[in-house]
Amino acid sequence: MILDMWATWCPPCKNQMFELKKVYDYYSRNDLEIISIDIEQSETSQQIQSFLDTNFTQYGYELTWIFGKDDGTIWEKYKVGQGGIPALCIFDKKGKLYFSHEGLAVFSEIPQGYPANLARLKPIIDEILELEKNE
After folding, report:
1. Residue 132: its H or E element
2. How many CA atoms lie within 13 A of 74 on its CB side?
3. Is 37 helix (H, G, I), strand (E, B) or coil?
4. Tens-place pLDDT, residues 64-92
5. Can you tell me whether residue 1 is helix, strand or coil?
6. Do 78 and 98 touch, CB atoms closer than 8 A?
7. pTM, 2 dp
8. Which residues, 6 or more positions from 107, have their beta carbon under 8 angstroms from its beta carbon?
9. Domain boundaries, the chain
């Protein structure tokens, strides 16, 4: 399970969602689920939906995983690094935190113009799935 912590005012968070869409399209729901939690407590459900419609839905990018709002408890528990967003936490099927990352992470290939040292999600997810398969 990937926990994606974001806010509508965060441009890198939008880029992260494009990368998460690649992840979501690649893996089956038996292997992986994504939960995107807006950590900005002042943002409303309507603002979140408007953000998704404006940036994704109208362009044919259906983000069909789970979206929610944080009351502060998720962010307080899983805040990563210096507390910047986007932030990701990846858990194994037993709920153990396996990987956490502050800042943009890509699915597999780093897009042209992006920093070469970005975290790649596919090798991490594949490693977790392989470990779980061998248990």
Report:
1. helix 121-133
2. 18
3. strand
4. 999 999 999 999 999 888 889 999 999 99
5. coil
6. no
7. 0.94
8. 19, 20, 22, 23, 26, 120, 121, 122
9. 2-133
